[in-house]
């Protein structure tokens, strides 16, 4: 009896000691990230069959050192953490662009307004030398602003590359550590009751840290291991094997880092959007949905300014009486040849924006399918075949972009085309002297004082057709009072007459006799003049080349009108409104990400609170447990003491 009692006391002593050790372990690790509360689970030992009196207990034993952790709640924490980390990463990047574009001093709007003010001041001062110099200086200021904004976006792009590279290294490190822990846990955890709790906590914490970098999906595997996958199901950890990611250069843009998945010696670039959540997913999402569109939109404004200004500038005369030349540089589209194209391919692709009003907010892929070259608009995957194709060179205009393709290719060869992304970076002023500003109109109209009627002719305008089919000057129009018609139009040119009601009447060449209509506009060979009044029989009106236009500001006035001209979105947006749309889009997205990040933080706190209720260490509870196990220890010791006394009594009887 004494021996049995001693054994019972001993088992209780060991159980209380285990409880004290476990409680102490909880207390000392209460502030360790990822630590889960542990508890001693006791069970009774096998009872002795005492026959008719029943069974007698033999003490207690430690059934399990239980780890309190809820995988469902842990999954919620990981998901919320990935979302918050992704939004915070996105916000840290987009807020820089938001502050940059909306700045009242460093943004583009002040430079645009300053440039057009210089143009208008030049028109108001009859193109004087000081006003010409001021206009040229404001143009340089605007060009510098375009370039500096683009350079800042380029720095942010480099920052994204750095983030990608750093995140990939961290993810690979976590994958290796998780795989090693899978191995260690598998070696120790022969049964669920013998699971190495501290190693499980360490592994769970690593998985949580992994979700700060990229959203990871966790699936229980064999032998207490975890299978971790990312993206669209790419395995990162399977049992004791860790797979690797790689920061690799884009095959179509060597300045752009992409995330690749390593299989053997091959690196497969993951598509945009394949990875979500975490710092890496947030950075990739930011680059695709905000940085690329913002830089392209800024370049679109620059190209729109350059193309439209140059078109009108070429229709004027400079201070030396020469036709205007390009005033601003028009950047060609970025074309990236895929480095994986066949080495035997001789295909060359070039692209240039020709009509800003038709531009779509999209990049393009030029791909050879084995039969045709196809231009694929990446925003909606609309495909346009370049036909008929001539290997010597074929040009086709799609969405306001002129694509020129030449050479031969193999099926699958492709090129990336970004029409406007370099527009701001390459925007610069080509005119280097004030005399090169084409402020004057190329034509001048007049009516002799000998005319007998009240007919008048407007100053006249020219359009783009004037550059290719300008009539021989001078042109003298004569009014025939008997027929009410105008004669003298160039024999080789058709004439169109636009009435005051907007109706257009066309007269094919040779337009020998064209009816006179008060207030109508007559157009031929790119020249347009408006006739008013009531001319007398034989009255003449002359249209001649402008030879004395040093003080003529008709063309600079038309250049100033570009400030309010709708040149984008099928003629529905101006330069200023297009830039304002960019600022608004970025601002709204910034606010959206900021609000979502705050909401995500609240959800993360809730998920962490719920998980902590299960696995967190409560120091007050542990202090209570210390007292409980201390008393149990003392009581078990008292049992052993009594057992010893009984044993000594039995021995003394035997003497």
What are the salient characteristics of this protein?
10 helices; 22% strand; alpha+beta; 655 residues; 4 domains; six-stranded antiparallel beta sheet
The level of helicity is 40-55%
Find the structural class using helix and strand composition: alpha+beta
- Determine the N-to-C terminus distance: 19 Å
Give a short account of the largest sheet: 6 strands, antiparallel
Give the number of domains.
Answer: 4
Please state the overall shape, judged from the principal axes of the Cα atoms.
Answer: elongated
Oligomer: single chain
Radius of gyration: 41 Å
Strand content: 15-25%
Count up the helices. 10
- Overall mean pLDDT stands at 93
Poorly predicted runs: none
Give the total of beta strands: 30
Q: Can you tell me about this structure?
A:
With 655 residues, this protein is α+β, with helices and mostly antiparallel strands. It has 4 domains: 2-68 and 619-654, no CATH class; 74-299 and 574-607, no CATH class; 332-418, no CATH class; 443-545, no CATH class. It has helices spanning 2-28, 71-102, 108-124, 129-188, 197-213, 278-313, 465-469, 554-560, 575-615, 619-654, and strands at 38-44, 48-49, 55-56, 60-67, 216-220, 226-230, 234-238, 241-242, 244-250, 253-263, 266-269, 334-337, 348-353, 364-368, 373-377, 382-385, 394-398, 401-406, 414-418, 443-446, 456-457, 461-462, 475-480, 485-487, 495-498, 504-507, 514-515, 521-524, 527-532, 540-545. It is elongated, with a radius of gyration of 41 Å.
């Amino acid at each position: 009896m004494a021996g049995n009692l001693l054994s019972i006391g001993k088992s209780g002593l060991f159980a209380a000691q285990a409880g004290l050790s476990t409680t102490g372990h909880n207390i000392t690790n209460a502030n360790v990230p990822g630590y889960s509360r542990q508890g001693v689970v006791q069970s009774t030992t096998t009872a002795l069959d005492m026959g008719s009196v029943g069974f007698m207990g033999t003490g207690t034993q430690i059934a399990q050192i239980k780890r309190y952790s809820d995988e469902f709640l842990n999954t919620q924490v990981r998901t919320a953490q990935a979302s918050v980390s992704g939004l915070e990463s996105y916000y840290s990047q987009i807020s820089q662009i938001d502050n940059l574009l909306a700045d009242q001093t460093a943004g583009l709007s002040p430079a645009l307004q300053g440039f057009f003010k210089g143009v208008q001041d030049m028109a108001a001062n009859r193109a004087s030398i000081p006003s010409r110099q001021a206009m040229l200086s404001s143009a340089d200021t605007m060009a510098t602003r375009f370039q500096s904004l683009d350079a800042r976006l380029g720095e942010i792009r480099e920052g994204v590359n750095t983030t990608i590279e750093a995140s990939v290294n961290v993810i690979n490190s976590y994958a290796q550590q998780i795989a090693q822990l899978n191995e260690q846990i598998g070696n120790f955890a022969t049964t669920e009751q013998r699971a190495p709790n501290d190693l499980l906590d360490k592994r769970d914490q690593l998985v949580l840290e992994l979700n700060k970098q990229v959203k990871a999906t966790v699936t229980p595997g064999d032998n207490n291991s975890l299978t971790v996958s990312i993206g669209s199901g790419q395995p990162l950890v399977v049992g004791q094997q860790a797979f690797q990611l790689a920061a690799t250069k884009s095959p179509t843009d060597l300045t752009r880092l992409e995330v690749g998945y390593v299989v053997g010696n091959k690196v497969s670039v993951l598509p945009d959007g394949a990875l979500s959540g975490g710092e890496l997913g947030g950075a990739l999402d930011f680059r695709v949905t905000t940085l690329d569109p913002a830089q392209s939109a800024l370049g679109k404004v620059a190209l729109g300014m350059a193309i439209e200004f140059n078109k009108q500038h070429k229709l004027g005369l400079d201070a030396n009486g020469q036709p205007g030349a390009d005033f601003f540089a028009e950047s060609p589209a970025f074309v990236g040849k895929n480095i994986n194209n066949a080495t035997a391919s001789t295909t060359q692709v070039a692209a240039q924006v020709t009509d800003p009003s038709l531009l779509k907010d999209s990049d393009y892929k030029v791909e050879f399918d084995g039969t045709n070259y196809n231009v694929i608009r990446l925003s909606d995957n609309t495909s346009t075949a370049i036909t008929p194709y001539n290997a010597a060179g074929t040009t086709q205009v799609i969405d306001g972009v002129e694509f020129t393709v030449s050479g031969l290719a193999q099926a699958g060869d492709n090129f990336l085309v970004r029409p406007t992304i370099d527009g701001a970076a390459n925007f610069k002023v080509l005119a280097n002297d004030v005399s090169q500003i084409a402020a004057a109109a190329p034509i001048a109209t007049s009516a002799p004082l000998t005319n007998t009627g009240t007919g008048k002719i407007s100053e006249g305008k020219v359009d783009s057709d004037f550059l290719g089919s300008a009539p021989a000057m001078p042109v003298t129009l004569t009014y025939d009072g008997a027929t009410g018609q105008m004669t003298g139009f160039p024999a080789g040119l058709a004439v169109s007459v636009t009435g005051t009601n907007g109706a257009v009447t066309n007269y094919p060449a040779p337009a020998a006799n064209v009816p006179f209509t008060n207030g109508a506009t007559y157009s031929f060979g790119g020249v347009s003049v408006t006739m008013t009044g009531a001319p007398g029989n034989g009255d003449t009106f002359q249209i001649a080349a402008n030879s004395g236009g040093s003080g003529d500001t008709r063309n600079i006035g038309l250049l100033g009108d570009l400030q309010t001209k709708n040149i984008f979105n099928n003629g529905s947006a101006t330069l200023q409104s297009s830039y304002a749309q960019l600022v608004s889009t970025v601002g709204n997205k910034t606010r959206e990400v900021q609000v979502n990040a705050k909401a995500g933080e609240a959800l993360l706190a809730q998920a962490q609170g719920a998980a902590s209720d299960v696995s967190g260490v409560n120091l007050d509870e542990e202090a209570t447990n210390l007292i409980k196990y201390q008393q149990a220890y003392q009581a078990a010791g008292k049992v052993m003491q009594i057992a010893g006394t009984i044993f000594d009594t039995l021995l003394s009887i035997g003497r």
